[in-house]
């Protein structure tokens, strides 16, 4: 398991550097997903299976969907249509693809080399997880949720079109669409 720890740690460091240095937000998000998956691999290699599963489910799953949603909500306009077409080129997917393949190899090697290490497999129900999470850590959980909410509100205000004195639902285009929907 030491091999998988070091490989996953190296992949996490490399992909995190790519997240920081990339100017394209979509590419940075792809590298961030690979980075979070490699952090989960680090947790798995250390024997913290629950932490690794939470890393995949919560961060690589739910939080990344939120990030992708915010990037899409910013709606950079028609200027990015050509850039989006350029993203479909295979050479842009080679970096995340190779690093993901390395992680897949490490996971397969770790699963095939797994032997019984005395893990008793006691089932923990959702109530016990909730008590542990919302007991002593309730303030941290609430602060993190408020921080995510604030980020979502800021992204919405940055991404929406500015029209002075006009409410979003009272736009002339919205009114015409609403009238045509009422007639149908």
From TrEMBL:
Compartment list: Cell membrane
A Pfam family hit: Oxidored_q3
Top-level EC class as recorded in UniProt: translocase
Domain of life: Bacteria
Catalysed reactions, semicolon-separated: a quinone + NADH + 5 H(+)(in) = a quinol + NAD(+) + 4 H(+)(out)
Keyword match Cell membrane: yes
Signal sequence, renumbered to the chain: none
Keywords, alphabetical: Cell membrane, Membrane, NAD, Quinone, Translocase, Transmembrane, Transmembrane helix, Ubiquinone
Function: NDH-1 shuttles electrons from NADH, via FMN and iron-sulfur (Fe-S) centers, to quinones in the respiratory chain. Couples the redox reaction to proton translocation (for every two electrons transferred, four hydrogen ions are translocated across the cytoplasmic membrane), and thus conserves the redox energy in a proton gradient.
Family under the similarity heading: Belongs to the complex I subunit 6 family.
Transmembrane intervals: 28-49, 56-77, 92-111, 131-158
Subunit structure: Composed of 13 different subunits. Subunits NuoA, H, J, K, L, M, N constitute the membrane sector of the complex.
One GO cellular component term noted in the UniProt record for this chain: plasma membrane
InterPro entries documented for this protein: NADH_UbQ/plastoQ_OxRdtase_su6 (IPR001457), Nuo/plastoQ_OxRdtase_6_NuoJ (IPR042106)
Protein known as: NADH-quinone oxidoreductase subunit J
UniProt topology in membrane: Multi-pass membrane protein
GO molecular function: NADH dehydrogenase (ubiquinone) activity; quinone binding
């Amino acid at each position: 398991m030491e091999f998988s720890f070091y490989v996953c740690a190296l992949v996490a460091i490399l992909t995190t550097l790519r997240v920081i240095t990339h100017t394209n937000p979509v590419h940075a998000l792809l590298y961030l997903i690979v980075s979070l998956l490699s952090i989960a691999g680090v947790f798995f290699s250390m024997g913290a299976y629950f932490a690794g599963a939470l890393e995949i489910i919560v961060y690589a799953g739910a939080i990344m969907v939120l990030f992708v949603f915010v990037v899409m909500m910013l709606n950079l306009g028609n200027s990015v249509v050509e850039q989006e077409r350029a993203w479909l080129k295979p050479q842009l997917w080679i970096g995340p693809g190779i690093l993901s393949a390395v992680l897949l190899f490490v996971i397969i090697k770790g699963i095939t080399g797994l032997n019984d290490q005395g893990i008793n497999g006691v089932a923990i129900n959702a109530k016990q997880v909730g008590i542990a999470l919302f007991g002593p850590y309730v303030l941290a959980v609430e602060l993190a949720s408020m921080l995510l909410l604030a980020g979502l509100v800021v992204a919405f205000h940055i991404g929406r079109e500015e029209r002075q004195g006009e409410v979003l639902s009272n736009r002339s285009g919205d009114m015409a669409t609403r009238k045509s929907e009422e007639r149908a």
